[in-house]
Input
Amino acid sequence: MSSKTPTTSRRDVTTAARRLGASVSVRRDRDNLVNEVLIDAPAGHVFASSGVHQLVCAGSDGESLDALYADALERLAMGTTPCDDDACDVCRPAQSCPEPGCTVKVARYNFPDGVLRCAKHAKAAARRVQQ
Ligand SMILES: [Zn+2]
Ligand SMILES: [Zn+2]
Output
């Protein structure tokens, strides 16, 4: 019988994530060298601990999954908050550039005027604004 301290298990992380509506996936390297615990926040939400839609707890050099689960649990503890990024690539996925005849998919706002355009048309719009 070993008497090591209780470790955080995948079940602990899954339970905490489920409470937030988040989902957990684990990528496990065959040689146990690079393990990753990935947690996706529910749609429209980010993790309060870091403001990202996906938590990535990555270990290397054989760092145990238990340590990653403990890290993940700690970061989950702060919960989630609605994403308030108007230009978020995750919440507002790619749409077509609105310039006539242009079919380029754009995922970011290309200023100057806040309209979502492809890089080429954003440059053209910037020239229009400067004139
Ligand atoms: Zn977002
Ligand atoms: Zn365009």
